[in-house]
Write a structure and sequence with these properties.
Strands 3-2-1-4-5-7-6 form a 7-stranded mixed β-sheet, with helices on both faces. It is globular, with a radius of gyration of 20 Å. It is of the alpha/beta class and 281 residues long. It has 11 helices and 7 strands. It has a single domain, classed as Vaccinia Virus protein VP39 (Rossmann fold, 3-Layer(aba) Sandwich).
Length: 281
């Protein structure tokens, strides 16, 4: 009854297909507030170091940062390092905010993952952090990444992991305990209510996470798109990244996972949401 009354108020003078009022603006504001005061320099520098195990990362490299958002710190840092980095963003309000943040209109382009604004073979590296779970079409998005990459190029994808045991107080994407383990029909109902009645369910994003993957899912989808080789974060971590009392143990675990298929599989239950896909050279 509560949602029925809410629906009567929200859609008394507008179509249901219009969705929740002003959701794009709410999403931009929420995202900007979350990133306010943060610094992703360390993340980008670490990522570049990891990618050096797969490709030549000597600048300048042509890099597409897909889903850069209104506060594209990754684009800024890559350009500081001397790379020709360009952000791609589908939400108009986020494009405007990103251009203002970078102070460079040519550093941000309007576009979706399914139709990237680059020529075939133009890009050395595609970065898609927290993007693939939100797209309309996963196969089309991966096919576009493959299209714009040069031979030997890398698509670095960080996305949802449907096998990871997220604690209920730290649920990914949706503010619903164990959302990624719920039956698909129930997840779709939460998606519907987020878009039409309660946008706080998925943090006000106009494109909620509707796709969930295992590492094997990502490999299969990548092969369908034409990618040839696949690497997990376990393969690329520098053991020197680990610090503190647990560092010696973690270094031994990572070393063992790199040489033992079964242990690697168990570790991918935790780390399987990140993958590097390489286009055949």
């Amino acid at each position: 009854m509560k949602h029925e009354r809410h629906r009567d108020v929200l859609y008394s003078n507008r179509r249901l297909s219009d969705g929740y009022p002003d959701l794009e603006r709410l999403g931009v504001e929420w995202f900007e507030a979350q990133l306010s005061g943060t610094d992703r320099t360390w993340f980008v520098d670490r990522l570049v170091g990891r990618l050096s195990r797969l490709m030549d990362v000597t600048p300048p490299r042509r890099i597409a940062v897909v889903g850069c958002g209104p506060n594209p710190q990754t684009v800024r840092r890559l350009r500081e390092l001397g790379h020709d980095a360009v952000g791609v963003e589908p939400v108009a309000g986020s494009v405007e905010a990103a251009v203002e943040y970078l102070g460079s209109p040519e550093a941000v382009r309007s576009g979706a993952a399914e139709e990237l604004p680059f020529e075939a073979g133009e890009v050395d590296l595609v970065l898609a952090e927290s993007v693939l779970e939100h797209v309309d079409s996963v196969p089309r998005s991966l096919a576009e990444m493959h299209r714009v990459l040069r031979p030997g190029g890398i698509a670095w994808i960080g996305t949802t992991n449907r096998l990871r045991p997220y604690p209920p107080w730290k649920e990914a994407e949706f503010n619903v305990p164990f959302f990624h383990w719920l039956p698909g029909i129930l997840r779709e109902s939460y998606v519907f209510f987020h878009l039409h009645f309660d946008p706080s369910l998925a943090n006000y994003t106009p494109r909620p996470a509707v796709h969930w993957f295992s590492f094997a899912d990502l490999c299969r989808l990548g092969r369908d798109a034409g990618f040839a080789h696949f690497y997990s974060v376990l393969d690329l971590i520098d053991p020197g990244e680990f610090q503190g009392l647990t560092a010696p143990l973690m270094r031994r675990i990572i070393a063992a996972a790199r040489s033992h298929p079964v242990l690697r599989t168990l570790m991918l239950l935790q780390y399987g949401g990140t993958i590097a896909m390489r286009r055949r050279g």
